## 1
Amino acid sequence: MDSIQNPAGAAAPAKTADAAARIREIPYNYTSYSDREIVIRLLGEKAWQLLTELRGERRTGRSSRMLYEVLGDIWVVYRNPYLQEDLLENVERRKLLLEALEHRIKEIDKRRDPQHPERDAKVVQLISMAYKAVRKFETSFGRIKALRSRIFKALKHCTREDNIRFDPFMRAAHVTDATDLRIEYPCVVVTPDSESEIPALVRACVALGLVITPRGGGTGYTGGAVPMSEMTAVINTEKLDHIGRAFMAQLPGVDERVPVIHTGAGAVTRRVTEAAAADGYVFSVDPASADSSTIGGNIAENSGGKKAVLWGTAVDNLASYRMVTADGNWLEVERVNHNLEKIHKQETVLWKLTVKDGKNPDPASARVLSTRELSMPGKIVRKKGLGKDVTNKFLGGLPAVQKEGTDGFITSATWILHKMPAHTRTVCLEFFGAAKLAGPAIVQITQFLDSHPESCMLAGLEHLDDRYLHAVNYPVKSSRDAYPKMVLVGDIVSDDEEALERVTQKVVSICQSTSDCEGFIARTDEERFRFWHERSRTAAISAHTNAFKLNEDVVIPLDKIGDYTLACERFNIRCSIENKIAMVDELEKYFSGYISLGKPTMTAGVAKETLLAESVPAAKKILAAVRARWTYVLENLDTRFAEAAEKLHELGLALPEKDFGKYAEGTLFEPVYDRVLRISWKKEVRSELFHIFSGDVFEKVRAEIDAIHNRVLRGRVFIALHMHAGDGNVHTNIPLNSDNYAMMQKGIEAVEMVMKTASKLGGAISGEHGIGLTKIGFLDRALLDDYLEYVHTVDPARVFNRGKLEPDINLRRIYTPSFNLLGSESLIMQQSQLKLISDAIKNCLRCGKCKSKCTTHVPRASLLYSPRNKIIATSLLIESILYESQTRRGLSKLHLKEFEDLGEHCTLCMKCLNPCPVKINFGEVTILIRNFLERMNCHHDPIAKKAGMKFLEISSNNGVELARKGLVQWGFKAQRLASDLLSPVAKTTLQHPKNTTGRPGVVEQAITMVNRKLPKPRLPKTLRAVLELNDPTTAPIIRKPSAVDAEAVFYFPGCGNERLYPEVGLATLAMLYDIGVQTVLPPKFLCCGYPQRGAGNHALAEQIVTNNRVLFHRLANTLNYLDIKTVLVSCGTCMKQLKDYHFEEIFPGCRLMDIHDFLHEKGISVQGEDNVRYLYHDPCHTPFAAPAPVKTVNDLIHPADGSKVLLTERCCGESGTFAVGRPDIATQVRFKKEEDILKNKARVSDGGFYGRVKILTACPGCLQGLSRYNETSGTKAEFLVVEMAHMRLGDHWLSTFVEQAVDEGGIEKVLV
C-alpha cells in the first residue's frame, strides 16, 4: 500500500478536504488500501488517471459509483479465500455475481455522452479496462481449478495427499506473518512429514513454475514469509520438529569435545531451550518469539535475544546445518574451526560445504556431488562496535544464514550449547527521571560488567520505556507515588554466589548514584520470573490500534542510545503537538457549523441563537489563543529558551523563574521534553470550554468536545521503545490504525526518521528482524550487490522467496486488513452478534505465542488450528458474511459451515489466555461463535453428542438411570467391541491423523470414534441409586451420627461424578465422612450449565443457572442452621461455572473450592500403593487454587518408594462431549498427549523401576479421556480422591462407606 512501501515511491496524501473525504468510496474495502490503490491494482495506473480526470468534471457521479461497485466486488473476492472458494464450488452463485458485474458496466456504457467526444473517449477506455478486469476475474476460476489439479498430481508423489492443502483456512493462515502485511494468497500450502520429502517437493515445485516460500512459525516482523506471487507454494516446516538429546561431539578443528544438540528446522525455539536445560545446558538463541519461532527461521534471520550479549546470535552458535538447494540437492554446511564464542572475535572463519544427491531422500547415505571450503573474516558478520547486525546479506557467501529464505530450504541444524554459571540474580531498575538517562545507565552497567568483575557476567539487559510499561500494565515495585519513565531488567550470573551478591548491589548503587532510580533484586526463580514476565508481553503496545504496528529493530552503539532516544522523543513531541492542534482545528469547524443543543425543553424556552451568541465567540477566542501558543512551541523547539519564554508570555503563557530557571541557557525543547512545560489539552482547552459551556443546556456540546478529542487522538502517532540494551538492539514500534490514511503516512515518516537516525549514529537498520519487505527501501544498495550476485548464481530462476531482498520490487501491492472498517456495517454486525466476535479478536497481534499452549495446534498430527490461525480465518469469515449480506446472492451456507469448523476446532481449555500479550481468550471466542451459529440455526451435532447433552440435562432419577444404562453400560460396551473389531484400521488414524478441515465422512467418523477404547464402568448405578437418594424434594445430609455439630459443607457432585463415574462422588463423600464433616447434597441430579454454555446454547445454560440458583437459595434458607461456609466440587469445569453462581450471596461468606484443596487444607495425605509410581494430569479447567497443582498433589499422595508425582501436560482430548462430537479432531489432540504420557512415563520409571504407573487426575471427563490411553501407554487412569480413599480407607472403602451411610443412619433427609 502507499503507506507501507519504499519511501522513494511513496505517494503524497490527498491535499484537499474533498479528496481526503474520498479516500475510500469503493464498497466492501475493509483494508488499508485507498480507492487509488485498488484501481491501480485491478485496472492499472492509466485507469486512475482517467478516473481522476473524469471525476474532476463529474456530473452525477453515478457512473463512477457503479464502476466502484464492480471493483469492490472483484477486490473483496480477490483477497478473501473463503469467498473465492464459495464461487469455485458454486457455479450458480458465481454466475449471479458475473451477471451483476456486467450489468453495471453496461449501465455505465448507456450513460455515455457522445456529444462530448473527449470525455466520451475516456469513458470508453475505462469501460474497456473494466471489461478486461471482469473477464480476467471470470476466467481466474477455471485457471485456479486447473492449477490445483496440476499441483496435486505432481506433489502427491512427494508427500502424503493429506499434506497438500488448498483450503481457505490454510491459505489464510499462511498469507501473512506477525506484520499482518499481505500481498497474495499462496495457491497451495504443503506440510511435509519429514526432512526427506523436501528435495522432491522442491524439484516438483520448480517443474510447476511455482515460487517456494519456506515458513516456520510465521513470527517475522518484516514480511519475510509473506507470499508475493499467486503462484506461491508455502512449505510449512512445523512437522520437522525433531529435537534430540544434548550430547558431547568432536567438532572439526576444535580440540575438546563440545556439547551440542540436533534439531529439525520446525523445532520451536522454546522446546529446544527446554531440551537443552533438561541436560543441564543453555541454548543461547532466545528471541522474544521463542514460544512460536522455529529453528529454520532463526537461521534464516540470524536471530538472537537477551543472551546474545553473552554468546551471540544464531550464526555464532551453529555447528552445522542442512538445506535443500534450488536444484533439489542436499547442501550440508559445517563450521570447521569453531571458536565457541562470538564469531566476530575470530579472525578467519572456515566452513565446509558438501553437496549431496537430492534424489536420495536419506541425506546421510546420499552420494556426495562436491565439497568446498568457504573462508570469511569474522569481522564482516556485524559492524564494528555493534552487538547485532543482519544487514550484510552476502555474509561472505555463507548459504542460508541471514538470507531470509531466498537461497534454499533449511531442514535441520546442530547447535553448540553452553553452561550457565550456577547462580543468577535479576536486577530491576526503575528510573523516574528523564528518558534520556537510559543511555548513560546502560553504558555504565555494560562497561562495569564487561570486565567480568569478580567473575560475574551480564547475561541479558532489557529496557522498556514508559509507553511499554503502560501497555503491559507494569506493576511498579517502588513505593513512591509515581510511574517510572523507563525500566531496565537484567540478569547477572556467576559461580560465586557471594561475589554475585556484591556485584549486583554495586550495579544498583551505580545507577542510584547517577540518576533518580530505585533498584530491586530477585534471588529466587519465582521472583525472577515475575521480573521478566512483563518483558514477554511487549507486543501489547499495539492493542489500542487493533494490533497493527510497524516494528523496526535498529542497532545503536551503546554510547549513542541517549541520542537515539532523544530523536524519537522529539518526534513524539512534534506528533503530540500536531495532534492537539488538529483537535483545535476540528473544534473550530464544529463551532463554525451547526450546533445542536438537544431537546427544546433543555433550553428552558431561551432561543438557541441567544444561548450561543456569547459562548461560541468566547470559545473561538480561546481556541485561537491556544493554537497560537501551541504552534509557536511546535515551530520553535530549537529556539533559545530565554527568547521563547518572552514570546510565550506575549501569547498568554507565563513561565515562572522558579520552575524554568534551569533552562535559561538551553532551548525550548528541554522543558517540553522534561514535561515541565506541558501542552495540556485538559487544562488549556477542555476545562476552559467546559467552563463556557457549563450547565445542562450545553450537555451535548460538552459531549461533542470530548468526542472530537477522542476521534482526533485516535490518529496520533507515537514511537515506543524497548531494547536488548546489552547489545544496543532497539525495538522501535509505531502502532497505527490501518484505516486512517493520514496516520499511516505519518507512520512512514516515523520509519524514515528512525532509519536515518540509526544510520547517522553509526548503527544498523536491523539487528535480528531481518530486512524483508519493510526495510528494503532503507538498505544501502552497496550492501546488496554481492548478495544479489550470489543469489542469482545459486538460484537463477529465483525459486525461493522470489521478490524478497530485491531493491526494485513494487511494494505498493502490500495491504493490511482493518477491523475498524468492519464496523462500518455495524447494523449487520450487531444484529448477528458478529460484533461481539469481532471485538473479542480485533487486538490479535499474530505473534503466535498461543501456539505453544493450544491443544488444537499439533503440527505432526496435521492440526494447525492455533488461535492465531483461527483469528485470521474468523476475520475473513466475518468479512464474507458482511459482504454477502449486502448482495442479492445472499449468504452462502458454505461460510456458516466453515465458521462451524472453526468453532469445533477448540476444546475450550482457555490455555491461550495466559501467553497472549493482549489477553484474547479464544475459548470464549469459540463460545461466541457457537452462540452465533445456534442463532443462525446452523449447529450440526452428531447423534452421539446430542444424546450426551440430553443425558446431562435429565434430572429425574428414573430418567437418569435409564439413560445411563443405554449410553454408558450398553453404549460404552458397544464402543469397546467395535474398537476390537476395527483395531487394524483404527491404528492408522493414531499413527498418521489426517487434517480435519471440514467434516469427515461417516466411515472416518466411525473409525476415529472407536480408535481408543472407552473405560468399562466400575459401578452399574449412579451415586444417588447407590445411596438410595430417590426423593427430589429432600436434601441429603451425610455425616457420622456423632458429627451433628461438626463443620458443614455443600457438595456439588456435577454430572460426571454422580452420573458417569459415581465412584468419584462416593469417594469424595467417603473422605468427608471419614474426617467428620457434614456434607449436604443437592436434592436431585443437577448440571452446572457449562456443557450447554460451551456448546453455544446460551439460553438453556442461563435457564439452568437460574433454576439452580433459585434451588440453592431455598436450600440455604432451609439449612441456615448449619452455617455452611464451604461449597465443594470435584470437577474443574463445575468450578469454572459455579464461580458465576456467586455462592457467597447464597451461603453468606462461603468459599468455593475443590475437594482436594479442602483435604489438603485439613492436612490429609496418604501413602501410595506399593510398586506404583504416579503421573498427574491437570485438567484444562484446573480445580486447584495453587499456581502449580502438582505440588498440592505431591502433598496429598506420597508414592511408597519415595519418588515424586510428575506432571503430564496437554489436553487428554475428551473435553466433555468434544470427543464424541468430533472424534477425528480428538484423535489429533490425543496424538500429542500420548507422546507426553510416554515421555513422562519414561521419566518416572528412571532408575530401573518396572512397576505400574498410574495417571491421577481431578476431572471426571479427564478420567474418561486418560482411560483411553491405558492400552497404548501401559498406564492406568485414576481419580485422585478415589486413589486417596482407596489408600486411606482400604480396598473395601466403597462398600464400607455405603453400609455406614445407608444402613447405620448416616444420611439425614431434609425437605426443601
## 2
Amino acid sequence: MNDKFCFAIDRGGTFTDVFAVCPGGKIKVLKLLSDDPANYEDAPREGIRRVLSEVSSQNYDPGKPIGTSELDWIRMGTTVATNALLERKGERIALVISAGFKDALHIGNQSRPKIFSLEINCPDDLYEEIVEIEERIVLQQDQCQIKKSCPVLIGTTGENIEVWTPLNEEKLRNDLKKILDKGIKSLAVVLMHSYLFPDHEMYIGKIAKDMGFHHVSLSSEVMPMVRMVPRGHTACVDAYLTPCIKRYVENFSAGFQNKLEGVNVLFMQSDGGLTPMSLFCGSRAILSGPAGGVVGYSKTTYNKISNLPVIGFDMGGTSTDVSRYDGHYDHVYDTTVAGVSVQAPQLDINTVAAGGGSMLFFRSGLLVVGPESAGAHPGPVCYRKGGPLTVTDANLCLGRLQPDFFPKIFGETEDLPLDKAATLKAFEKLTNEINNFNSAQVDVKKETLSVEEVAYGFIKVANEAMCRPIRALTQGKGFDTSQHILACFGGAGSQHACAIAKILGISSIFIHKYAGILSAFGMALADVVSEVQESCAKIYSPENFEYLDERIKNLTCKCQENLQNQGFQEQDISIEVFLNMRYERTDCALMCTAVSSAATEPKFIQENCDFLKSFTDRYQREFGFCIPDRPILVDDIRIRGIGNQHFDFSQNVKIADGPPKVKTVTRCYFEEGYADTNIYTLDDLCYGHEIAGPAIIIDTNCTILVEPYCVASVTKDGSIFIKVGDANEHKTLSLELDMIHLSIFSHRFMSIAEQMGKILQRTSVSTNIKERLDFSCALFGPDGGLVSNAPHIPVHLGAMQEAVQFQLKYLGDNIHNGDVILSNHPCAGGSHLPDLTVITPVFYGEFKKPVFFVACRGHHADIGGLTPGSMPPHSTSLLQEGATFVSFKLVKDGAFQEEEVIEMLKAPANLPGCSGTRNLRDNLSDLRAQVAANQKGITLVNELIKEYGLDVVQSYMAYIQQNAELAVRDMLKQIGKSTLRKSGTTFLTAFDHMDDGTVINLKIEINIDEGSAIFDFTGTGYEVYGNCNTPRAVTLSAIIYCLRCMVGHDVPLNQGCLAPVKVLIPKGCILCPSDTAAVVGGNVLTSQRVVDVIFKAFQTCAAS
C-alpha cells in the first residue's frame, strides 16, 4: 500500500470530502463542491485527479481518463440513492404482487407524521404499474377450519406450506409484456409468505429476466423477513434505486482507464460495512454517507480515550444526526426514509431537524428553532443572499464564528466574507419584537433583553432540541446518558459540543483532527462486510439447538467464502451471529448478538453462547420487565462476516515545547456575558498543549468552541480532547418566567411523552398499538391538567385530561405510591371501551400527594361484547361493547392485579349474546406494556425534578400551559377581527347531520378583546338508540384538535389550549349521552363530524 495511492471519499449533498493516503504514507485532505458542472463532471473523480496531479510525477489531464497504475484502492460513500429517493428521480418500476394485495403497499401503516396539517400530501408510490399475480401460498395451521385439497410443501423454516393457487405463468407473461411495452425495465416482486417460500418469486424473476427486464428485485432475496408491507417497500426501494447506483458506478468507472480494472473499489453500506462495487445495491445505500461517520468515531474514539461508550454527534446545515457505539454497532431493521418503509439493516442514526441553517422564530412568547431550514440557498442572513435568521447567525452574533477565519465565498459574486453587520441588524429587529411582547405581558420578567441574550437564548433552545434524540438513544434504551463520551464531527457540531455535554451531564468530548471529513476518514478505516440471513420460526429451546447450530454453521461458511473470494485470509475474518428473538404472541423482536470467530463449531450455541441471557437482559433494560415462562421464538438467523483490514492512519504531531500560540483575541458571549476568548489554529497546536476555555480553535473544516470551565488538550495525533467543567451543575432558576427556559422546558416535557410512546409501541403486542399507532401518551400536572401529549391520536388529546381529573375527584386521597389505575368508561373521561387508559401517579421525595401524573391510552383488539373486536355495529347499550372500568387499580401497592383484571375482562360473558374478552393474553401483555411506558415517564419526570427542583418544574409546567393558552387567544383574536371585518359580527355558526339525520349544531361567540370563545352545541340532536353517541371527552378532543390545526405552527399540546374556550353541551344530546349509552361508533364517526362542523364554522377547510 505504501507505493500506491488510496482514496476514501464521501460524496455528500453539498460537499465531497476526500481522504487520500499517498505513497510513503503522506495524508492529503480535500473538500470540493459535489456539483460544479462548469468545472468538472464528477466530484469524487475530480478529487482523485487533483491529488494525483499534486503529488504524483505523472500528468493527469482533466479531459482524459485517469490512469490507474498508481491506484491501490478507492472507498466511497454516496448520497446518490438518498437524493434519488427524496427527489423521486429513481428508475421507472412496476410492482409484482400477490393477487388481492395490489393496494397493500399504498395503504402501508397508519403513521401520521403531520397530524395537524390541513393539507396532507401522501408520498408518491415508487411504482408506476402493478401486476397482480395469480398465486397463493398459505402457512399450514392445525387450527384452520378451511380444508383444501392442495399440495403441501416444506418452507425454508421447516414449516408446512399449502399451495392454494399455483402460479399462473401464462397470465404472468402477458402482464409483464404489457409492462415492457410501456418502457418499464425494472421490477419489484413481493409475494405473500415468500420469506419462507421463495420459489414463486425466484421463478417470476427468471421469467422477467428472460423477457428482457434489466433489473428484478425479489423481496425474498433483498430482505427475507416476515411482514409483507415493509418487505415489499424494501424490494421497491431496491428496484427503484439500484439501477441509478449502477449507472453512477458505471459513469464513475468510465472516467478511468480500463474502467478501474485491477483497483479494489468498495462502497459503504447503510450498516457500516464496505461491499464490492458490483454488489452495491439501493436498499443498502440510503445511509451510505452518514454510516462512514459512525465508523469513523467508533474506530477513533471507543477504547482510545476511555472505555465508556460513545455518542456520535454530527451537526450539519439542516439537521443533526446522533448515534451510539459501545463496542458493537446498533442496527435497526425497519426505518422510514422519504415516506417509504425500508426493512434492511441500517445503523441506528437518529435525526432531528436542527442544524446550522435552522431558522429562528418568535411565536406567542416562545423561542422556536426549526424545523424549517434556510438551506444553502439563500442560506442564513450572513450569507448575503437575503436569507432568514438561523443558528449560524446566532453563533456569529455571539462571536463564536470569526469572519476573518472563514472563506470569502458569500454574496452574489461569491467572494465576500460573512456579513456580521446584517446579522446584528436582523437580531436587533427580532429583539425589539420580543421586548415589546414582554412589556405587554403579566408574570414575565420585565428586564429588557439585549441582542446577545436573545441570540444566546436561541442557541440554548437549539441545544435542547439536539439533546432530545440523544436522550431517546440512551435513556430510551435504559442507558445513563452521562456515562458516555461525546464524539463531535460535521461542520457545526464542535461549536455546540461543550453546551450539549453540560446539558446531558457528559464530562468528556472528543473531536478528531479529521472531524470535518470524518465520514470519509471512517470509510478508510471501515471493514468489508458480508451478510446472509434466513427465516427460522423455531422456539429457542435445547431441542432446537442442534438445528440452530447447523443453520449457523451453514450461513457462516457462506460469509467466509464470500470474504475469502475477496482476498481475506481466514485469520482476518471474524463472525458475528445474530438471532432475531421475541416472546411468543408479541411483535417486538430484538436482534441479539454473540460475537465469535468459531461459529462453524458444531455446538456453537450449546457450548459458546447464551442467547437467552442476551435477550432477557436487553429486554429488561429497554422495557423494564420480562415475561417469565413465555416461549421465545427465533424469527431469523443473521450472520455478519467481517473482513478486518487493520488499517491505522494515525500520525503523531510534534510534542509541545512551549505554550500554545495565540493567533488573536476576540470577545465571545456566554452564560455570564462577554469574555475575552483566545483564538488558536489547529495546525499550530502540538501534543501536550492544554487550552483553558473560553477559547476558539480554528481548523480548515470546522470551528471548535471551548466554553468557560472546560479544558481542551491536544492528543498524540493532533485531535482535541475536552474535559467539561460544571458538567452536572445548573444555574439556579428563579420561579419567575424566563422565556428562554420556557422553550427548553417545552422540549423536555414533550420528550417525556415521546419516550413513553416509544416504549409502549415497542413493548405492545397488538397490531392496533404497534402498527396502527392507535395510542397516546401524556404528562399531567398534580391537578390532572394536561402538560404535554405526544400527538399520536387526535381523539385522545383532550379526553385523557378528563380521565385523569375524574380519578382525582373519584379517588380523592386514595391514590398511593405503587398504584396504577385502569379506566375506560365514558363517564370517567373514556372515549370508547376498547381504548383502555392506564394512569400512574408520580410521587417525589417526602411529598404525600402526587406531584405529576403520567398516562397512556391504547386501543385493545378485543375486550369482549357482542362481536369480535369489541366494535359491534348494532350495539344499543354500553355493556354490549365490552368490559367496563370506571376506576380499577390495575396495580395495587406495586402488585399487578392479574386475577382481578381477568375476572373483569371476562365479565361481559354474563350478558345475553355477549362474550368476555377473546384475546386475554394480548390484553394482559398490552396492559403490562402500558404500565412499563408509564414507569418510563415516572423515571424521566423524577430526573427532571432532580435536575431543576420541584418548584421550578411545576412553575414551568404552568407557564407552558399559559403559553398554549396565549397562542390560542392570539389565533381567536385574529379570526374574530377577520370575521368582524367580513360580516360585521363575531358570531360563527355551522351545522351538519349524521347519516340518520341527527343534527350537530354549533354556535361560536368570539370575544376579540379577551381572545376567548364560547362553543355552544345547543340544538344538537338527542342521544340515539344506536352507538353513534359521543362522550363529552371526545368532543373536547375534537375542539382541541381543531384549534391546534388552525394555529398553524407548533404549540405545546396541553390544557392551556382549552383555557380560552367555554364549551356548552346539553346533557342528553348525542355529544353528551347518558352513562349507559352505546358509544363505540361515536368515537370514530361522530367525532369526525364534530371536526367537520368546527372547521365549517371557522371556514377553515371543507368537510372530509
## 3
Amino acid sequence: MEEENVVRLLQRYRRDRHILLDFLLSGSLIKKVVMPPGAVTLDDVDLDQVSVDHVLNCAKKGGMLELSEAIRDYHDSMDLPHMNHGGSTDEFFLVTNPEASGSPPKRAPPPLLVSIPPPVISQGPVFAPSPVVSLSSVEKSESFNSNDVRELTVDDIEDFEDDEDEVEAVDFVRKPRRNTNDAADLMAKLPALATGITDDDLRETAYEVLLACAGASGGLIVPSKEKKKDKRSRLMRKLGRSKSENVVQSERTPGLSGLLEILRAQMEISEAMDIRTRQGLLNALAGKVGKRLDTLLIPLELLCCISRTEFADKKAYIRWQKRQLFMLEEGLINHPVVGFGESGHKANDLRILLAKIEESEFRPSSAGEVQRTECLRSLREIAVPLAERPARGDLTGEVCHWADGYHLNVRLYEKLLLSVFDILDEGKLTEEVEEILELLKSTWRVLGVTETIHYTCYAWVLFRQYVITQDHGLLQHIIEQLKKIPLKEQRGPQERLHLQSLRSKVEGEDLSFLQSFLSPIQKWADKQLADYHKYFAEEWATMEDVVLVAMITRRLLLEESDQVIQSSSTADRDQIESYISTSIKNAFTRTLQAVEKSDTMHEHSLALLAEETKKLLKKESTVFTPILSQRHPQAIIMSASLLHRLYGIKLKPFLDGAEHLTEDVVSVFPAADGLEQYIMSLIASACGEGNVEVNFRKLTPYQVESISGTLVMRWVNSQLGRVLGWVERAIQQERWNPISPQQRHGSSIVEVYRIVEETVDQFFALKVPMRPSELNGLFRGIDNAFQVFSNHVVEKLASKEDLIPPVPVLTRYRREAGIKAFVKKELFDSRLPDETKSSEINVQSTSTLCVQLNTLYYAISQLNKLEDSIWERWTRKKPREQITRKSIDEKSTSFKQKGTFDGSRKDINAAIDRICEFTGTKIIFWDLREPFIENLYRPSVSQSRLESLIEPIDMELNQLCDIIVEPLRDRIVTSLLQASLDGLLRVILDGGPSRIFFPTDAKLLEEDLEVLKEFFISGGDGLPRGVVENHIARVRHVIKLHAYETRELIDDLKSASGVERQSGGGKIGGDTQTLLRILCHRSDSEASQFLKKQFKIPKSSV
C-alpha cells in the first residue's frame, strides 16, 4: 500500500513538473528559449531532464534560456545533496541515515587552512552579474562528504594555473585590486564614461594596446604551453621574497617577452586572455602589407579575428565582446579626436551596428553568425576611415585615432602606469620600473600621450598610491615627476595647443588637463597641511615632502589658470601662513576641548589650558618650525603670536571679571604670565634686536587687575544664566513620564534641582567674603528659574474654553418640526465649530497632566528644603563676612530670611490650579464629550440617565488616582467634580433643541444628582461630604426650577425681567437667563408663544 502511494505521488509530481515547465517555456516570462542541438520544438525535449531551478533563475533575470545548460545543470545536481534554496543556512538535508551514522565525533575538527589575499585597490564598481559556477567540476575526492584534509601544495597551484580557461568566465568579478582607504575621495576630476565601462575593462583594453604597440616593434610572439613549467618555482619565489626593499627583486626571462610577461602579471591578465589577444593581433596583421600593429583599429580587429570557440564560457565571450564594442563607441563616438563634422550621421550608423553585433549573440547560432559577420563588415567600412583621419599633424592612415581621445586616453594610460607597482606589495615599485616606463612610451602614439601628459599622469598615479599605502618612499618619486612637468614656456607650440584642447566639465566646472589631475592632489595636500598638527603629529618626517608637493602643484595650477604670480617665494610664504593659521587654530581648538573635558577639579581650566598651549608651542618650535621656516623665515613668530592671541581671547573674560584674589586667579595668573614670557622669548630669539619691539607692539599683552567686590555677583549672574539654560533644556527634553512607580514626577524637575544645588554648592565653595546682596541675587535667580520652569509647564496648555463646545443658539419649540429636526439642527450647529478647531487645540493626555501636577508639587515641596539649606549654610559663613564688611551687615537687617521664594511658590500654585481645572474640563468636555455633553438626556431623561456615565467617569478617576500623588488627590478630584457639574448644567440649560425637559423630569434629575454626589463622596473614601454638598448646591437649585410648570416659570420670568431683562430675580428664585433657558427646553406651545412674543426667539428649523 505504501509503495502504491509513493508511485502515485511520483506520478503526480512528474505531471505537475511538466505543467510548470510548459507554462514557463511557452509564456512571456523568458525572453528567448534556445533549443538544444537536434531539437526543433519543445516536443523534442525531454522535460524530465530539464532543471526547474535553472529555468526559474532565467525567468527571474529576464534573460535568455539555453535548454542545453538547463539539462546539464540537472545532471550535475544529481550527484549532490538536495537543497531547498530557502535562503536559510540552518536547514539542510542529510544524504545518510542519521540513526545509522552513530554519535558525533568527540574530537575537534582539523583546522582549515585559509589563504588571506593581500589588500588590493578597487578600480571602480563592477556592474557585471555574479557568475553561476557549476558544481560538476567538483571531483568525488573533493566532494562535500570527503573527510580528507591536506595542505595546499605547489602542484595544486600549477593545477589552478592550468585551469585558467575554465575560470575566465568569472574572472571579471574578482575582488578589488586595491584597498582605497583614504583615497575614496581622491579621484581625478574626469567625467564618467557614458557606456559604464569598468576599471577592469579599461585595464584589459590597456593591455591590448600595449601588446599591439609592442608587436609593432616585432616583440609579439604567442607563448607555448611549455612556458608553464617554470611558473611554479617563480611563483613560490615571489611569494617568499622579502618586502623590506623599496624595489621588488624578481627573476624573469630577458628581453621584451620577459618584460611583457611581468606586465601581464602586474595587470592581472590571465594567460588565456594573453594568448588569445596575441594570436588575434597576429591574425589581424596577416595580409595587411605595410601595416603596423599599432596602426590597426584594435577592438575591431579582435572582434573579427577571435571567435566564440576560443572561450571556455559563453558569458566570458559576451562580456569580452561587449567590452570591445563599448571601447569602439567611446573611442570613435563619445571621445573622438576628430569631430564628425558634416558626416555626423555616421555616429548613429556606428551605434546601430554596435547594437546589432551585440544583439546577434541572442539569435539562433546560424542567423546570429550571419548578422554578426555582415555588421562587422559594415562596421569596418565606416569605422576604419573615421579612425584613420589625420589629426595633430599626422597623415591619413598614419595613426589610428581610436584610443587617443580625451579623456579615454588618460584613463587607459593610467591603467598602464599602475603596472609599475608590485601586485603583492603595492607600496613598492618593481625592479623593472624603468624598463616598463620605457616600454609604455611605445603607446604614446596610439594614446596621444605627450611628455606633459605622461609626467602628470605618472605623478597622479604615484600620489594616489601613496595615499592608499602610506608608503613614504613614494613621495620622492612623486616630487621627481612633478618637477619634470614642463611649464608653459617650456612646452612646444604643438603640445601647448594640444593641452589647451583637453578640457572636461565636471559638476559644472570647466577644467583643463592639469587641473583635472593636479587639483585633487593640491586639495588633499592642503587638507593635510591645514591641520599638520593632527596629520603629522607622529610622522613629521614626511611633512617636508608633502609641503614640497603642495608648493609644486600650487605653482603649476596658478600658471595653468593664468594668475599673476609675484614671485615663487612670496606665493609660498602666503600659503605657509595659511597653513600655520588654520593648523594652529585647529590644534588650539582641540586642546581647548580636551581641557574642557578633562578633570579640572584641582586646577582651573585656564591654568591647564596655558600649560597645554605652552606644550603645543614647544612642539611647534622644535618639530614643525624647522620645516616651515625654509619657506617662511618668520614662521615661529607667526605661530607664537597667533597662540598668544587665541589664549588671550579665552583669558580676557576671566581677566575682566577678576576683581578679587581667588584661588582661580592665583592658579590662572602665573600660568598665563609664564606662557606670555615664553612666547616673547621665542619671538625675541627669532628676530633681530631691532625688530623685537616691533613684534612685541603687535601683541595685545595680558593684563592682571586687582579683584573688586563685584566678582561674586558676576559669577552668580553667569551661573544663573547657566541655570536658566538648563531649565530650558530640561523642559525641552521632558517627555512627562514618571521616573518610577514611587517617584511619579518628571525627570526635568530633578535635573533642575540638580543644577540649582550644584550652583549653590559652588557659590558657598568660593573662598571669598560675601555680602547679603550676593545671597539675595542668588535667591532671586533661583526664584526666577523656578518661575520660568512653572511657566514653561503650562505655556503649551490649551485654554479650557477651547475644550468646551460652543453653546447652541437658543430656539423655541416647534410642533411641526418634531424631535428629528431639532436633533439634526443641533448636530449641525454644535459640532461644526469643534471640528474646525480640534486640529488647532493641543490636548495633552490625562497621564501627562498628572505627571505635570506631580512635578510641580515636587518643585514646591522641595523648595522649602532648599531654602532652609541655603540659610543654614549662610549662617555658618556669616561671621567671616562680618569681619570684612560691617557696613553691608548693617544694611542686611532689611533682608528677610523667609519668603525668599514667594514668587515661585505663587506661580507654581497657580500652575497647579490651572492644570487641575484643565484636567477636569478635559475629561468631561473632551474625553467624555459624546456620552456626556452630546448624548446625556437625549432624546429624553428617562431614556438616557446619568448613571450610565458613572463607569467611564470612574475609569478616568481611577487613572487620575493611580498617577497623582496623594497630597494633590483631593484637588484634582474636586476639579473633576466641578467639571462634571458644569457639564450637567450645560446639558440641562444649554443642551440644544434636541433635549426636552418636562416638569416630571425634575425628580429623575434630582436622583441623578444624588448618584453623582455619592460617587464623589465614595462612602467616605472620596471628597468630604461638605465639600461636595457646597459644589452641587447650584445644580440642585436649577433642577428645582425644572419642576415648576410652564405658567409659573413664565410669570416669574415676566416679573423678574422688567426693563433690564438680565438683572434681578423672580419669586421662585431663578435669574432671567436660567428661566429663559428652561423655557427654551419645554416642549409646549405656551412656552413657544411666550418666547416668540417676548424675546423674539426663532423656532428651531432644519
